[in-house]
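User: Show me an example of a complex going from sequences to structure tokens.

Assistant: Sure. Here are the input components:
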Amino acid sequence: MTAATSQAPAATAPPRLLALRRFAREFAARRAAMVGLGILVALTILALAAPLFIHASNLDVVNAPGQPLSPPSMRFPLGTDYAGRSIVPLLIWGTRPSLAIAVVATALTMILGSVIGLLAGHHGGTTSRVLMALTDWFIALPTLPLAIALAAVLGQGDTSITIAIAVTSWPGTARLIRAQTLAVEARPFIERVKALGARDSQLVIRHVLPNVAPFVLVSGTLTVSGAIISEVTLAFLGLGNPTDVSWGSMINQAFFQGAVSAGDWWYILPPGIAIVIVALAFTMIGRAVENILNPRMARKP
Amino acid sequence: MAQEAQTAAPLLEVRDLAVTYRSAAETVRAVRGVSFTLEAGQTLGMAGESGCGKTTVALGLLRLLPVSAKLSGQILFKGDNIIGMGWQRLRSVRWAEASVVFQGAMNALNPVRTIGEQICEPIMLHEKVGRRVAEARAADLLDGVGVPSRRRASYPHELSGGQRQRVMIAMALACQPDLIIADEPTTALDVIVQAQVLELLTGLVRERQISMMVISHDLSVLGATCDRLAIMYAGRVAEIGPSREVLGSPRHPYTGILGRAFPRMGDPESRMAPAGLPGEPPDLRGDLSGCPFAPRCPEVIDACRTHDIELWPAGEHRESACIKVLDSYTAIRADQATPAGTRQVPLHDPAGSELAGPAGDVSRTGNPVLEADGLRVVFPGRRGRGPARAVDDVNLTIGRGEIVALIGESGCGKSTLARGLVGLVPPTAGEISYEGAPLRYDGMTLRRHRRHVQLVLQDPAAALNPRQNVFDAVAEGPRLHGMNAGLTERVHQALSRAGLRPPEQFIARYPHELSGGQQQRVVIAGALALEPSVLVADEPVSSLDASVRGEILKLILNLRDQLGLAALIVSHDLGVAWNIADRVAVMYLGRIVESGPVHEVLLRPRHPYTQALLSVLPDATSGQPGRPLAGEPPDPANVPAGCRFHPRCPRRAALPAGDEQAELCRTVPVPVLPAVARDSAGTSQVACHLADSGVPTLVEHSGTAG
């Protein structure tokens, strides 16, 4: 009876839109989530708009405006690097590859992990055993050497870093999605759909996937921060594009130019802090999404 | 039985108890103004549907409710008010003086500790005795509840459901309490095990002079075990009094409806007319003035909505919250200019009749629509156990427009048989045929088969995808079969046939916004949207409330009458068969042991197992608990030789040792019952060596209880 009255206005809007609205409302009610989202939006705009207000010549090693490794001053708010370039434009330009690689690598991870997890969970038997053996094999592989080896085979550059990150981080997602698939498929409504005459593909795409999708999303937001750090690590190890400016390559250069031992904090801290902030922003959003979508964490009525 | 001669203060006196759940968003008044007393040595039953507040009252007595619950009123236990009690005192009352038998023994027992340790725990805690003393007591307690004391080193998962519930009872008795609160003690158990547990509980309580309060949704259980009975509705006591009188001559319309929801075999009134109650219980968040039952009451008058409702005396030791019992009732009634409120609850759905079209006179005779021939389903063994013969050579036919009930304990293979008929479980041997054409297990044939034979599951809340609204849930079947033309009309028609009218009001809702009965109607509508000719329903009403149960059974009956839909109803509940089935088949350990017309099988049972099933039904009005069958439910991985039922068979046990007949039962398998179409089945068939040997049957109740 109450449902009838409280849901009456809802009957006009399509359900997916309603669910989205409810999600947006709950998301907006969480401060950490909004802060994280704000940071990300600001950084994305900054990254996309960077070429509009910072000319690429600022990144030119040859025509560097200042003295190498000079401390922060009025002219260079965060000092200069080993070649005498200002740190600020470097930092802003560095956002671009860092974010792009993290997002693309995460997307690849999610697709690979979900497909393998769904297949293994739905089919069971031999298919599941083979796929899970493969997953375990990738879990057991040490991440860094694998990534280094991959980058060595594929050549230096953003593409190989992206692929290396995706290849090494999908097994966790696959395991999670397989477990969730098994849990969803054990529920009676799956049996009902089978009794209605659904094919395997219809069953998985129409019923299992929507029910595991929240877990994919949560796993995704939490993977992004890991991917950013992996990107930095790989760039720091010199596997990135040497001509490109990214936060990882900045720390890499600072390290090899002796910034740490010379105490040139302005060279090494800003990219480090930027990495922490972005990883944190993604984690805050991921946690909020997890809290909203996970029914066990949701408020009891 | 009622001990009216008590002179001392009652053991437990509850005065004006109210429990309110408060959260930031809303206030739910779960219990309002509940008062009752419980004398020492007396048993009080508390009945009502889910959400009526009965469990809240029970747990509130020991303040076991979540922190969001606010209690007010008085709970006087041996003269002390539990509501104002300090924690120290409360802790010593809990378990030592008043203990609880929780519902669902699997969850209430700690899975990583042995049952012995768990029984010792309260003894050592409350009586400050050493482990050895406690263990000796635990062994005694286990023996007392019929679990061999050597099992005390077992973990909960190693015990059967009935044994776990016995362990829970032993735990409740551990500190020799004065009061036991049993919250749905038998709900999750099979009928036969339920009867065993009830017999044990009542026996122990009587023997030890313990007071007991039993919470249940099943009136027949309470009628058989309790001296007094309280019926709750929407957080209030609707009626309270001695069990037999409350059930025999209800003074509140709600009691009558609840009582009729579980029919007695042979009662012609409930045959083909399940009792139900339209509508939903009121929302406990809102303002609740007047009688909370008024919106659903068949005898409502205008004064019900305005008059203040309280418990009025209604005869000796009886109280009722219905204004009918007031002396001034006739005056109140006469006052009303138009007594238009009176509305009769029709036995059959009146709105359904408009749907009776040409389909209404579908011939119910002719060829069987669905058949199982020598069906066998064997599941491979696991972890050292042999293969489980879930369904073992079953012949069954369902005629056009016929309702067949398949009855048995859990684990007897009835659900597997149902899934086999839908084509969800491929048979190991044997054949399913639809309209004479055998089912082949390739994709196309299976999909076609599933259009004609539809499945309805037990728990409607779980059977609906929580992310699909009602429209999508009902449209799912047609969409899967590519029937996209006229989808909206098809869905609307299915919803109104399933009794969700007008359909526009429901299509945008999500499963969690519907009540259990409405959810089950959506599941049925989803099946109807494919225009099937057979509905296979696996325990379609066992997870529903009593008043809703009848409504859903009526719906199935209406669908048969109007659309010519045949149905196989799988249930552990013989009442369902009595309510709506034409024919009944009783299944034991993978085989059908007796089948025939409902009148024959249920009123003149010939197989000892059928007789046992019927004899355990608690007879509410006679106040007699049923007579349980000894032993545990059988294991399909370990089928006995000879007649499968012989180890538990009371008829065989009654034979003298070394009897030729008894030897026959032990060694020679009983022949498999052939499938019989309804027309030729004037009598029942039975798979028993001793069926017609003149050995006395079990059905006659002996004079003494237990």
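The lines above are the inputs; the final block is the predicted structure for all two components together. Residues 27-49+83-293 of chain A form a domain with the MetI-like fold fold (CATH 1.10.3720.10).
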